[in-house]
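Fold this complex.
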Amino acid sequence: MQLTEKHIDYWQKNLRLTAILLAIWFVVTFVMAWYAIPLAEIKIFGWPLSFYMAAQGSLIIYVAIIGYYALAMRKNDLEHGVQEGEED
Amino acid sequence: MATSQKSFTQQLKKYYTFYTGGFVLFVVLLAIAEQMGMTNKWIGYTFLVFTILLYAGIGIMSRTVEVAEYYVAGRRVPAFFNGMATGADWMSAASFIGMAGTLYLTGFQGLSFIMGWTGGYVLVALLLAPYLRKFGQFTIPDFLGARYGGNIVRSFGVIAAILCSFTYVVAQIYGVGVITSRFTGLEFGIGVFVGLAGILVCSFLGGMRAVTWTQVAQYVILIVAYMIPVVWLSVKHTGVPIPQAVYGGVLERLTEREKQLTADPKELEVRKIFADRAKAADDKVKGLPATYQTEKDAVTKKLEDLKAANAPKADLDAAEAAVKGFPASPDAAKAKWTADKGAAAGRTGPPLPHATPYPGKDEKARDTSRLNFLGVVFCMMFGTAALPHILMRYYTTPSVQEARVSVFWSLFFIFLLYFTAPALAVLAKFDVYTLVVGTKFSELPAWVNAWQAVDRTLLSITDINKDGIVQLAEIVIGGDIIVLATPEIAGLPYVISGLVAAGGLAAALSTADGLLLTIANALSHDLYYKMINPNASPTMRISVAKGLLLVVAVIAAYVTSLKPGNILFLVGAAFSMAASAFFPALVMGIFWKRASKWGAISGIITGLGVCLYYMVHTYPTFIQWFGTTPIPKWFGLDPISAGLFGVPVGIITIFVVSLVTPAPSKEVQELVDHVRYPSLTGDIDTKGT
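Structure:
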């Protein structure tokens, strides 16, 4: 089993995508929670922003991150010829 | 294969649509029966018996003796359905019944569980699920064993998997016992065994296959049961049937109401009474042993005075009880009065501001509160990405791409409940703060009286300042009541209460199923087949797996009947342990080829070790059990978040030890490449058989 350049490129792309999405996850989760007290001053539709993010906003972003990853990786698989066959 | 998989999915959709329709019809029929005079007790029984029979039926239909069917449901569960099954597997009694209550009681701070229990799926999706699916065996210790070579790592995997799953399953069986006993009047112990029978019938006959298809059915019941009362409550307070979208306005009104109640003179009066009581109790404790005799004389004299004055019977009874219940010794008096002081002192403060992050009296208190919020979020997330019963589910999809999509559906289905729970907490709190507080004791809503009669720990309201009107400070509320009583608060018929109980039962049973299976599989597959008897025939392997399942279930039920500790803590502890033991070794095994066998072994030991050390030295119940010496909390972090220390220690240890020990062999490096690419030419095959 010899890895070609194409394979290495596939893995690099995957790592980059994973790192970017994890960075978003980190900001939404830990950075927002760290600054929850000042963020509570901002109001949206009655919710203080920090409450809204912890109760709903961050959850929606999590779902979106996972959905985006699944779509982007399917494309990445196809572009680099590592997709699974019909049999699998 | 591709076409048969497609028709299989079509068929499943048809079955479950029929099933959902049938279930709705069943609820409607019961509602009609209730109008015609069916009693509450019989509605409770009907729900219990009907749903358990239903799960048993699915279990019998999915019975199997094939290895791949038993362990991973034949690896053909479509992403959508695996998502639903994971949702039910994931959401336990703690999520269904406890979550909204925790939010009611702790406000913003409780949201750490909401974030932690959803955000963890980002880690599952990005770092684990697709790679584990490509590896394609049966258990999590399987992966550790293959990646790091040898039985030592596998054994540690088995031990850690059993440790955290067992802690977690005890909490679930406890939940089953509570729900069945509350809604049918059966005794707690009997409730546990009735529930256990329901769990066993499906996992015993059909392993993962039966558990998967039952969990899908259980998800449907639990989500319907959760939504109906909340939607109704939302209509009651906002006129809009989408609570999640509109409770921001209610939260604003609630915050206004909190401010009013904080400054309300009557509220201040009640809080003052509690402060006086706390002080009186404290004085009595400080005056010991002299106060013991003077207090004893005082209660005796009061009784005699009342008798002499021909006082009303109620007063006489109370005075008599005070004499009878007087502590037998100065030591007992000290314990009782200290407890009295604590109870009263806990009720002297203003209401907790629900929407405010990290409330605290000074900068330091706020910082500790923030650290604990972040600690819980961290441990729940990394624990999610390390709990074997969840990761195992991604072995069951037909392909790597399906595994990725399946995590999406999993989180979507979990999200539906988790973004509703904070709305429920706010709506229920608003209801209590506006419709219960301020009413006359003679005009309390019917649900308040009903629940006070059931269990005083869930709800009790006493007229402390004798003004005949309910003050917020006079209400004691237990978290679990929020979900259980919502149908009545919203003014729905009893059949919906029965439905909620069935939903809670579905949540607890489905999680318990998944956990028991994980424990039994770790023993039968990893310990027996891989380490003791690799030549065992498939029939033998399945028989051993089923036998062990029974043994584990009985042990778990026995431990549960001892009623150990606080449920939310047990659950949280399981997450911290799983995170510390598994997360570093699993993720580094995939992303870092250099991670070596000894690195992994020492990482698991130090990570889990630090986590356990911190818990048994800071959590009061554990200190009592194991007789350990208490240590001061590090940075003020609560024991539930011990994983915040365990995970980094595990990662650093793996890193350092791997660098000073020999690099993994060429075969292992090839294995890593194998799991990284969904398909490779000339690929090795690691599929389990």
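The mean pLDDT of chain A is 91.
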